[in-house]
Design brief:
Elements lengths: L1 E4 L2 E4 L3 E6 L8 E8 L6 E8 L5 H21 L5 E5 L8 E5 L2
Parallel strand pairs: 1-6
Antiparallel strand pairs: 1-2, 3-4, 4-5, 6-7
Amino acid sequence: MWVRVGDDLVRGDTIVGVAVSDPPYDWETFKIMLKVTGHRDHLWLDSGVCDDGQGAGREQVNALADAFVDTLARGAAMPSGALIRFGSGEDDSGWVLSSLG
């Protein structure tokens, strides 16, 4: 199974950690940070969710991070392999899981 992280394509079984950043400014978006074996630094995904100062933005991006872990598990169960990417444009509802077979 493969995961697209920005310009990088990484194997799902090399992802060893998922965290959410704290944006330093209110107008910045939360980032989902992936720790990947073989990469010294975190790989970053922009969630597109801004910190609203009320906690709703944090809840939304935490749900996205949880959904990513669930999508990893579903992708790993696909016998033909899978590609996971974060939706953009019309797919902005979350993670897109595509079969490779």
